[in-house]
Automatic annotation (TrEMBL):
<dbReference type="InterPro" id="IPR000620">
    <property type="entry name" value="EamA_dom"/>
</dbReference>
<dbReference type="Pfam" id="PF00892">
    <property type="entry name" value="EamA"/>
</dbReference>
<dbReference type="InterPro" id="IPR050638">
    <property type="entry name" value="AA-Vitamin_Transporters"/>
</dbReference>
<dbReference type="InterPro" id="IPR037185">
    <property type="entry name" value="EmrE-like"/>
</dbReference>
<feature type="transmembrane region" description="Helical">
    <location>
        <begin position="180"/>
        <end position="202"/>
    </location>
</feature>
<dbReference type="GO" id="GO:0016020">
    <property type="term" value="C:membrane"/>
</dbReference>
<feature type="domain" description="EamA">
    <location>
        <begin position="9"/>
        <end position="139"/>
    </location>
</feature>
<keyword id="KW-0812">Transmembrane</keyword>
<comment type="similarity">
    <text>Belongs to the EamA transporter family.</text>
</comment>
<feature type="transmembrane region" description="Helical">
    <location>
        <begin position="96"/>
        <end position="114"/>
    </location>
</feature>
<feature type="transmembrane region" description="Helical">
    <location>
        <begin position="253"/>
        <end position="284"/>
    </location>
</feature>
<keyword id="KW-0472">Membrane</keyword>
<feature type="transmembrane region" description="Helical">
    <location>
        <begin position="41"/>
        <end position="59"/>
    </location>
</feature>
<feature type="transmembrane region" description="Helical">
    <location>
        <begin position="214"/>
        <end position="232"/>
    </location>
</feature>
<protein>
    <submittedName>
        <fullName>Drug/metabolite transporter (DMT)-like permease</fullName>
    </submittedName>
</protein>
<keyword id="KW-1133">Transmembrane helix</keyword>
<feature type="transmembrane region" description="Helical">
    <location>
        <begin position="126"/>
        <end position="143"/>
    </location>
</feature>
Length: 305
């Protein structure tokens, strides 16, 4: 596959992942109301673990090396433990639009960690586009009166940092281990630690939760926790961590759109104006040059090829 075609495919897969992730906060907001923080945050991993275990066994996947296992621990800490738990807790008291604005800082966090963990060196043009996108969402947050941080805000900001590190680490590892294998093994590593707290948190009342709550929990388990990451890590492996991370600037506005459709939250003209500015920053950023460290050919083993 030619480099240009590969990068375009990476951006497309990244967009698919972002669309899937954009339904995560709305789904979490619904699920946490009926299942609580632990089940909605960690229970999704327990369910996803059953799915990925079957896939890994059927495909007879080899166990990761010790070096890869260390990277998978970082992925598991962010994508499997930290982000789901922190966002589930925050969504108990914050509207989805609030969370969406703060999560818009994720691309900047991902690119920053990519410089240290993924071996990428974004150009000045890339950072200018990142600043434009970040400044736009900060103005949006201030306009809506979200300037005063609460404990839930701190949880979301911590979630941004930990997931940014996880994205950067997973994107780099996907080049040699395979995109879906990264999140699959991360889920397997994290799941055993979640079984007991999830089991102790399940109550009889949860069985009577409405259909939308069950659909939300299933979506979080199958799509948000696994399939979305397959698309996302594939995209970063093909298009580059920093460049594909720019697509995340669309995520807060997609979240707000889905929140309006499914939760009845309001979309204003100001929101649409900010969305246009953010889209512009994505277009600018995707054309920016990004240098990479050379990787030994023997390590470039991508099982998805």
């Amino acid at each position: 596959m030619q480099k240009e075609t590969r990068e375009k495919m990476g951006l497309l897969l990244g967009l698919v992942g972002v669309i899937c992730f954009s339904l995560t906060l709305p789904s979490t907001s619904i699920a946490v109301e009926y299942f609580g923080t632990t089940v909605a945050g960690l229970g999704r991993t327990a369910v996803a673990a059953v799915l990925v275990a079957v896939i890994l066994i059927v495909r007879k996947e080899k166990f990761p090396s010790l070096r890869q296992f260390k990277s998978l621990l970082i992925v598991a800490l962010g994508a499997v433990l930290g982000f789901p738990l922190l966002t589930s807790w925050a969504m108990k008291s914050l509207p989805v639009s609030h969370g969406a604005v703060e999560l818009a800082l994720l691309p900047l966090a991902t690119a920053g960690f990519a410089m240290f963990r993924g071996g990428e060196r974004p150009s000045l043009k890339f950072w200018v586009s990142s600043i434009i996108g970040s400044a736009a969402v900060i103005v949006y947050a201030l306009h809506l009166g979200f300037g005063q941080l609460q404990f839930a805000d701190a949880a979301l900001l911590a979630a941004v940092l930990i997931l940014g590190l996880s994205y950067a680490e997973g994107g780099g590892l996907a080049r040699e281990l395979g995109s879906w294998q990264v999140i699959a093994w991360a889920i397997i590593i994290g799941a055993p630690f979640f079984m007991i707290p999830v089991g102790l948190s399940i109550t009889a009342e949860m069985l009577h939760a409405p259909l939308q709550a069950w659909v939300s929990l299933i979506y979080l388990s199958v799509v948000s926790q696994f399939l979305a990451y397959v698309a996302w890590y594939s995209g970063m492996a093909m298009g580059g961590i920093a460049r594909v991370s720019q697509v995340q600037y669309l995520q807060p506005f997609l979240m707000i759109l889905f929140a309006a459709l499914f939760l009845g939250e309001t979309i204003t003209l100001f929101t649409l104006a900010i969305a246009i500015i953010v889209v512009f920053s994505v277009v600018l950023g995707k054309n920016a040059s990004v240098s990479k460290k050379e990787v030994h050919p023997q390590k470039m083993v991508n099982k998805d090829a």
